[in-house]
Amino acid sequence: MNENIGAEDLETVAFEIGVVVPKSSGNNKDGDEINDCIEVLVDEFRKAGLIVDRVVGLQNEFLRLGAPLKTLGQAAAELQLKKRTHIGVDLQFHWDEVEAYEMQPDGSLFSWFERYCCYRHIIYEIVNTSTSTVILKSDGNEVHWEPGKPLLRTLESMGIVKEVFPVHDETKRKQLLRSWALNWWDFTVQPIDDICNYYGTKIASYFAFLGMYTRWMLFPAAFGLTVQLVDFGSLQLFVLSAFFISIISWAVLFFQFWKRKNSALLVRWQMNYPAVDNESKYLEGEWYQFQSPVELMKKQGADKTDKPRGKEAFQREEWLGHFMRFRNDAMIILSIICLQLPFELAFAHVYEVLRSDVSKFCLTAVYLFTIQYFNKIGGKISVKLVKYENNKNIERRADSWVYKVFGLYFMQSYIGIFYHALLHRNIMTLRQVLIQRLIISEVLENMLENSLPYLKYSFKKYRAVGNKRKREKGTSSEKTQYMSRVEKEYLKPDYSASIGEELEDGLFDDFLELALQFGMIMMFACAFPLGFAFATLNNITEIRTDALKLLAMFRRPIPRPDATIGAWLNIFQFLIVMSICTNCILLVCLYDHEGKWKISPGIAAILIMEHVLLLLKFVFSRIVPEEPAWIKANRMKNATHVHDMCSRQLLRSISGEKMHTELKKDE
Q: How far apart are CA 397 and CA 231, in angstroms?
């Protein structure tokens, strides 16, 4: 790894990591440059095989890091990453046997998540190998680099290294802008493999789901538009019932086929998850390769020192984890029922009673401010509760947190609509509220989520340029310095969640928006069939705006290893069951105009239809397999191949031992 980097590597290697350090003040005395913190850090990076590009910005200096394939391969071998081989088996990576491993769909050897782990391993494993403390200098101050301590951690603790973050690859970013974010003519077609290579499997899974969901929305959108615009007269209730049955069947089939598509993506992206295992989503033994290097070392160290645990210890840990999750979920549900439900019902009732538009506007403003405060408190409490649960990895903790927080949003998004639909039985008011939520709210949310990051970035950029001008005031000799690309990226906001950023990134808000939209159009489909058409148009726009947001307005996100939509799949399934119940109630309200709630043949037929649809959901989920047959066949073929290879190797080993024993006897 100490070999010189050739000119070809400089041209082909992309800079993917940025390290932010202070600008040199120029106060270093002669001889101090040898022990200067930044100079030593750059020298150590180069000794580790990294390519370093130093960029001086307006306020800070930036070290852009790139790595040749050999450097990444050696780091992957040290991390003991598992990779897919040509025979379909995941084996520990060895750089000397690189030809045995499959390439990614784009032709590269490592995925973005694997490269990120290798970068982190390289830069954080630079330690003081001497037996004495090294004294480093930083603007006249001394920094003690103790033996065995990582250099980067030491400089971070002293505030010299301000941040380490992924940076955009300009060539790939511009290519994705052309083929993805600005390619409006293809509607829902997206370069999913390129997205996966650049952003990782989790973000690619979101856009694959969003694209498939939008394509499938075309059928209910066309059907709903017909039901809304055509007057069927006395057959209107029958047509609504047929529309209701169709969208429930559509939703159940969509999620079954999404599971099949997700299984295919897992195989294509060389993920190690068993696709249809409902009880254990991931194999814990294979999750080590997806942990951060620090967690990996801690886990491996624990495995070496801990004694083997017995059956009782595993059972105790298992049931304690179930109990903690049950306790935390019960606390959240009781809090929602006792605190948030009365607040939401009081707001809905007061809003219905008020006659003045000014009063309604003021009440809505107070309500919106209050619920934002509630959401932040609920998110923080949920994060603390999840920490006490026995979740195996960060993705499991994130899923547990999502379930808890979604309850808050579910209550605040739908309780007012339930109030208008069930208590007042006012279908016209219900449609007005749905139009307001689906059109006005989503347009405003899209404007805010795309404009706020740009405003934050513009404000930080203005402050940086202003501070530079103040420092240079009176010194006309220096030329005007423009902001570099890496400094602009540093000033951009992180792709983080609005709440609970400790466990989730910006995908939480994107999935939450989709889930709330899905619940809105599904649970009140009979009251407003046109909602599917509005949702389809919004999702077509959402694909491009979300892509533009990631490529132009945010930093490059830290990759996540998961390649599924996680807890959101169960949330969508829950919303389907809720929509069966709510739409049956809406049909009863439309049928029973007088509100007598007597069991008549029409109401009895609606109640029977509810039970039939619940049974239909269960039947469809069993008829359509969650995994394509070709994936099962490939897995069986690979398993057979591995079994044959192991059998032959075992037989050769047994034969060798037998021959060795006979030779000893002859001697």
A: 50
Distance CA 251, CA 640 (A): 37
Burial, 113: exposed, middle or buried (Cβ in 10 Å; 0-12, 13-18, 19+)?
buried
CA angle 321/324/329 to nearest 5° reads 125
Residues in contact with 170: Cβ distance below 8 Å, sequence separation at least 6, in sequence order: 485
- Using alpha carbons, select from 332, 317, 319 the residue that is nearest to residue 384: 332
Which pLDDT tens digit goes with each residue over 594-611? 555 455 555 666 677 776
Has this prediction a pTM greater than 0.70?
Answer: yes
Assign 274 to helix, strand or coil: coil
Helix 394-418 / helix 507-523 crossing angle, nearest 10 deg: 40
Which of 420, 399, 277, 288 is CA-nearest to residue 351?
Answer: 420
- HSE on the CB side for 275, CA within 13 Å? 23
pLDDT surpasses 80 at 416: no
Residue 350 CA to residue 360 CA, distance in Å, equals 9
State how beta strands 82-84 and 90-92 pair: antiparallel
* Angle of the 567-591 helix axis to the 601-623 helix axis, nearest 10: 160
Measured distance CA(509)–CA(402) in Å, rounded? 11
CA distance 442 to 538: 8
Q: What is the 3-state secondary structure (H, E, C) of 554-578?
A: CCCCCCCCCCCCCHHHHHHHHHHHH
pLDDT of residue 481: 57
Q: Are 422 and 356 in contact (CB under 8 A)?
A: no
pLDDT digits (tens, 9 = 90+) for 545-600: 999 999 999 999 999 888 888 889 999 999 998 888 888 888 777 766 555 545 55
CA atoms within 13 A on the CB side of 226: 10
Q: How many CA atoms lie within 13 A of 471 on its CB side?
A: 12
Q: If you write DSSP's letter for every residue of 226-257 in order, what string do you get?
A: HHHHS--GGGHHHHHHHHHHHHHHHHHHHHHH
Which residues contact residue 280 at a Cβ distance below 8 angstroms, ignoring those fewer than 6 apart? 274
Contacts of 49 (CB under 8 A, 6+ apart): 1, 2, 3, 67, 68, 70, 71, 74, 122
Give the pLDDT mean for 452-473: 72
> d(Cα 576, Cα 441) in Å, to the nearest integer?
22
What's the pLDDT band for 468 if we cut at 50, 70, 90? low
Residue 31 region by backbone torsions, left for phi larger than 0, else alpha for psi between -120 and 50, else beta: left
CB 130 within 8 A of CB 16: no
CA distance 659 to 655: 6
Residue type, 43: D
Residue 653's H or E segment, with its range, is: helix 629-666
Q: What is the CA radius of gyration of the chain?
A: 30
How would you label 84-105 residue by residue, b for 16+ Cβ within 10 Å and e otherwise? Answer: bbeebebeebeeeeeeebeebe
- Cα-based distances in Å from 597 to 236, 425, 463, 584, 604: 20, 12, 65, 13, 11
Residue type, 77: A
- What is the rounded CA–CA span in Å between residue 12 and residue 416? 57
Give the C-alpha separation, 355 to 338, whole Å.
Answer: 29
Give how far Cα 322 sits from Cα of 309, 315, 336, Å: 19, 11, 21
* Residue 515 structure tokens: 């889930």
